[in-house]
Amino acid sequence: MQNTTIQKEWFSKGEQYATEINEMVDFGEKNGWENWKGKEPEDTRSNLAQEVFKLLKTANQNNNTENFRADFPPAHTPMIPLFENRSQSIEQLHFISGEKIVFVTGTSYEKRQAYLLDHDQITALDEDIQAIGKSKQGNIFAIAQSGKILLHDGWDGTIINEFKLNSTADYGITDLIPFNDGSKVLLVTSYGIYLISGKEEKLIHPINEDNQEDWTPDIDMENATLSNDNSYIVVGDQSYDHRILDPEGNTLGSIGAQSSYPHFCLFAKDDSQLITNSCHFYNGITIGINSDQYVGADIEAYTESDDYTVIDEEMRVYAGTATRDYYILGDAYGYIKAFDKAGNLLWRHFLGSTISGITLSDDEKTLWIGAHSGILHKLRLDKGRRDTHTISNGNHYEEFRLLIWKNEPQIWKW
What we know:
The chain is mainly β. The chain folds into two domains: about 1-70, no CATH class; about 90-414, YVTN repeat-like/Quinoprotein amine dehydrogenase (Methylamine Dehydrogenase, Chain H), CATH 2.130.10. About 15% of the residues lie in helices and about 40% in strands. The protein has four helices and 30 strands. It has helices at about 1-30, 50-60, 65-70, 80-85; strands spanning about 90-95, 100-105, 115-120, 120-125, 130-135, 140-145, 150-155, 160-165, 175-180, 185-190, 190-195, 200-205, 225, 235, 240-245, 250-255, 260-265, 275-280, 285-290, 300, 310, 315-320, 325-330, 335-340, 345-350, 355-360, 365-370, 375-380, 395-405, 410-414. The strands form seven sheets. The protein has a five-stranded mixed β-sheet, with no helix packed on it. Strands 26-27-28-29-30 form a five-stranded antiparallel β-sheet.
């Protein structure tokens, strides 16, 4: 009887909250937030979280998660009290094949754990793995561990290159992007961004332009990407504008921040556009420039211009991916949103806390999203909403979410 009472309260309040939130956001987007006169909806179920979490664990132990999910559709806000001392960042998500991806838990300055996820089965990988990267095209995987980077042709495939790390060996790795042919790796750290090859560890960002004696390459909000064809590298951080480089690290152009701090960059799937995001607190601005501007780009900071397209004026972007037709970007507020190259918002979908990683299947039908909450979500795009608790104006079906929490004896499927 107690469980029935909890289930009814969880379901009815969750349905009401999702309906009210969706209505409010729809109104704000269509009519302007300044015209919203209603009160902000509240999710008042946090008092149920501990009991629901116990029931979730029981459902996992009894292999009954499908029925549990129907009775208790997942939600973020009520579970926030449980995140304390449990949550962890889920990063470096990379699609392998079929229903299989690889990812790591923990940030660059923490002890990480790598995992393989196949359908809903999860396997812990070698605990010495510090970072995992995948090429933009082809299927080259880079694995950093024990002071070296191994380049594989396919996941668990033949080793085609091995780079021993010297000056960068002890740096925490924010991002790791192998070139499509496995000849080099873009290494992103808070102590600088490097091109790693068999012959050198070349610092390409930041640059000590004035040859200052006490200069260090230490940076914050470090971010970088490769174009899909590897013709261009983009680098940026909190203190330096985004720069477009050639494959050897030579500067070709620069893109000034339109908000306070350069924070994220990504190429369109066909490299026809480059988008860069700059942030201020939890918000930000994303702009795009076309491929004929990459060489010689000179976008002034904080300046309106016809030289760029405004993609979005709200999001502080932490992670993203590009489909054939649009971008999917994840922000500080726990939303993923899709934009086309003209800056039209196609859909938005709320997951919870700050998005820390995204990967997309090759057929562009399945999206995996990691969050700082320690939760990994698996979405089927355009399959239709699974329930009335979904906070979204998209049409996506959450197949499951995994609670990959610290201090838990196992990973819980919801």
